[in-house]
Amino acid sequence: MSDVSNKNMKMTPQRIAIMKYLDGNTAHPSAADIYVALQEQFPTMSLATVYNTMETLKQQGAVVELSIDPGKKRFDPNTQPHHHLICIKCKTVLDIFVDFPLPLSDRETGGFQILGNRVDFYGICKTCGDTPREMIQTNR
Amino acid sequence: MSDVSNKNMKMTPQRIAIMKYLDGNTAHPSAADIYVALQEQFPTMSLATVYNTMETLKQQGAVVELSIDPGKKRFDPNTQPHHHLICIKCKTVLDIFVDFPLPLSDRETGGFQILGNRVDFYGICKTCGDTPREMIQTNR
DNA sequence: CTCCTTGACAAGAATCCTTCTTAAGTAATA
DNA sequence: TATTACTTAAGAAGGATTCTTGTCAAGGAG
């Protein structure tokens, strides 16, 4: 997601704006986040356009769709292998660039062809840390 | 989720049926899956009852809510720490009982108070393996 | 240059999943 | 068995996403 150009998709003002917004964005925005952020610049842009564009970018491998926020898609323009630190209170997502060895034996994979992995850490971020409340599952 | 009894919640026929259905279930069903499965037995049961019951069970630590299926909640009655192998085609989820060391330094956590973690492996299951199609992100 | 094809757009309808509201019902307890 | 608080069913409501439709713009062929 570093250059705003692509020979595989038609570049329209809307798409350029979305890609610029995503470039370097570490907030893992939802479709609505993107939509709202570009409202001023493109008052007539449809939310469907955001979804369409994200779907296109996803298929091209320019963004990764995250399912860390139940009931909401969020997108990560950083396609380098990395993991996430998720605040269970405010849903903030921090990137972690640590490489963990995650070996699986053939017996454990049970015929699955492994293509990738994702590690999510759950916790309370610094900002939310002042008012802890509920006990959380330690593994899911 | 091994015994169908609980002193912290009122046991109704619907709840007993849901708990029995979940007991030993490794399919990680969604609310709708549970609802449909119990339709014959409880034709009048509301989907809201399934959601209510799952919320109650979740708060009691009897099930874990998974967000592996975008836009859909799925539940895991196995509350032992374990990880998942997810088929990107048919959304089948297999449990893996392997313990990976996932050390994070204070610098990496950036003030986050880590409460738990989750490792998801993505791939193609044996059944879907016959007709591979698209290239997948190796890490998300 | 003009026609034609293709893809992208906006707008809103439709759908899916989940939560909320309300009135009626029922399990737990004494 | 009576009380009480919790649970239920039903449907409305809400949020997120997808679909449909008609319009529009860009690029290629003639």
Fold and architecture overview:
Two copies of one chain form a homodimer. By secondary structure, chain A is α+β, with helices and mostly antiparallel strands. Chain A folds into two domains: 1-79, Arc Repressor Mutant, subunit A; 80-140, Dna Ligase, domain 1 (2-Layer Sandwich), CATH 3.30.1490. The first copy, chain A, is built from four helices and five strands, in the order αααββββαβ. Chain A has a three-stranded mixed sheet, with no helix packed on it. In chain A, strands 1-2 form a two-stranded antiparallel sheet. In chain A, strand 1 (64-69) and strand 2 (72-76) form a beta hairpin. The first copy, chain A, is globular, with a radius of gyration of 18 Å. The interface between A and B is large, with 53 and 53 residues. Chain A binds a DNA duplex (30 and 30 nucleotides) through helix 3.
Pick out its properties.
alpha+beta; homodimer; DNA-binding; 5 strands; 4 helices; 140 residues; disordered C terminus; Dna Ligase, domain 1; 2 domains; two-stranded antiparallel ribbon; three-stranded mixed beta sheet; Arc Repressor Mutant, subunit A; globular
Quick description:
2 copies of one chain form a homodimer. The first copy, chain A, has helices at residues 13-22, 31-37, 47-59, 106-109, and strands spanning 64-69, 72-76, 83-87, 93-96, 113-124. By secondary structure, chain A is of the alpha+beta class.
Count up the helices of chain A.
4
In the sheet with the most strands of chain A, the strands line up as 4-3-5
Label the CATH architecture of the largest domain in chain A.
Orthogonal Bundle
Mean pLDDT of chain A: 87
Broad shape of chain A: globular
Low-pLDDT sequence parts of chain A? 132-140
**CATH level 3 topology of the largest domain in chain A:** Arc Repressor Mutant, subunit A
Number of strands of chain A: 5
Structural class of chain A: alpha+beta
Oligomer: homodimer
- Please compute the radius of gyration of chain A using only Cα atoms: 18 Å
Count of folded domains of chain A: 2
Termini separation of chain A comes to 31 Å
Major sheet of chain A:
3 strands, mixed
Succession of helices and strands of chain A: HHHEEEEHE
Q: Biggest interface and which pair forms it?
A: A-B, 53 and 53 residues
Question: What is the top-level CATH class of the largest domain in chain A?
Answer: Mainly Alpha
CATH homologous superfamily title of the largest domain in chain A: Winged helix-like DNA-binding domain superfamily/Winged helix DNA-binding domain
- How much of the residues of chain A is beta strand, in percent? 15-25%
